[in-house]
């Protein structure tokens, strides 16, 4: 039988492995959408950027660096694609915040989730810019970060519900009384 410490370490290891797999999933979905991952074109795009750094500046011209510009434009023209984009950018980071919170298990993990979600999103948005695999958009940074924070809140809501549930069980459990020896 495993000790409680060994079980806790095993669970923590599993959570961090799930987080690593989830980060791989994020890279796949955000950078490659639902297409195949091909190294050749990626290396070619990196090579092109290194040879012609001006192409990166050109791509910056198409980037959205104004907060809420894309969100306002999509809200002004609601359609399925725009709604999926907005909701998708939020929802895709909820598991990230949840898993980081599970791995850290401290209330201060909220700051880590906030910074981690922003950092991961910034990394992905920057790679989209560098590799020409999408558009850099600060609204995506905002939505991804808020999604990570929502995952953090969801985790602690689950913890609170679990604690209340255990409290209810312990209150309703029969009280053991000791018998006096005669």
Explained architecture:
By secondary structure, the protein is an all-alpha fold. It has eight helices and no strands. The longest helix has 35 residues, at 138-172.
The stretches of 5 or more residues where confidence is low (pLDDT under 50) are none
The end-to-end distance, rounded to whole angstroms, is 37 Å
Class by alpha and beta content = mainly alpha
Fraction of residues in helices? Answer: over 70%
Give me the number of helical elements: 8
Radius of gyration: 23 Å
Strand tally is: 0
Outline: globular
- β content, as a range? under 5%
Overall pLDDT score:
88
Question: What is the oligomeric state here?
Answer: single chain
Order of helices and strands: HHHHHHHH
Largest sheet: none
Write the layout of secondary structure elements.
Blueprint (H helix, E strand, L loop, with lengths): L3 H29 L6 H13 L2 H9 L6 H8 L3 H12 L2 H11 L4 H23 L6 H35 L10
Helix pairs in contact: 1-6, 5-8, 6-7, 6-8, 7-8
């Amino acid at each position: 039988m495993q000790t409680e410490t060994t079980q806790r370490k095993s669970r923590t290891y599993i959570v961090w492995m799930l987080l690593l797999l989830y980060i791989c999933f994020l890279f796949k979905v955000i950078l490659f959408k639902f297409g195949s991952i091909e190294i050749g074109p990626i290396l070619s795009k990196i090579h092109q950027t290194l040879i012609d750094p001006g192409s990166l500046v050109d791509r910056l011209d198409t980037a959205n660096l104004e907060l809420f510009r894309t969100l306002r434009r999509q809200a002004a023209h609601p359609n399925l694609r725009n709604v999926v984009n907005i909701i998708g950018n939020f929802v895709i980071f909820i598991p990230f915040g949840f898993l980081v919170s599970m791995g850290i298990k401290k209330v201060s993990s909220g700051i880590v989730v906030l910074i981690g979600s922003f950092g991961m999103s910034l990394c992905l948005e920057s790679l989209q810019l560098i590799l020409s695999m999408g558009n850099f958009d600060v609204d995506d940074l905002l939505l991804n970060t808020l999604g990570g924070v929502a995952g953090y809140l969801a985790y602690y809501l689950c913890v609170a519900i679990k604690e209340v549930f255990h409290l209810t069980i312990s209150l309703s459990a029969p009280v053991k009384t000791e018998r006096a020896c005669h």
